[in-house]
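Study this protein:
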Amino acid sequence: MDLRTLLAAVLGVGLGLVLVAAPESVIRVHTAGRLPSDRGGEYGDDAGVSLPTRRLVQALGGTMLGFGLYFGWVALG
């Protein structure tokens, strides 16, 4: 059993699950500290994350999850 392959599997599965389960949180953390594109609106309003952006993050998470499971299969098999 190769330790690096096993660690890659754990990392891929963990990050993949986070990206699939909480895409909005991942996007908000990624864009934290950036200036908004428009300054209109009420105080405390948050612009929502668009559906295509959420689906893209979930698709990337599914891909990472798949690679993580593959690496786990290789490491343990």
In short: The longest helix spans residues 51-76. The chain has one domain: 1-27+50-77. The chain has a mean pLDDT of 86. The two ends are 8 Å apart (CA to CA).
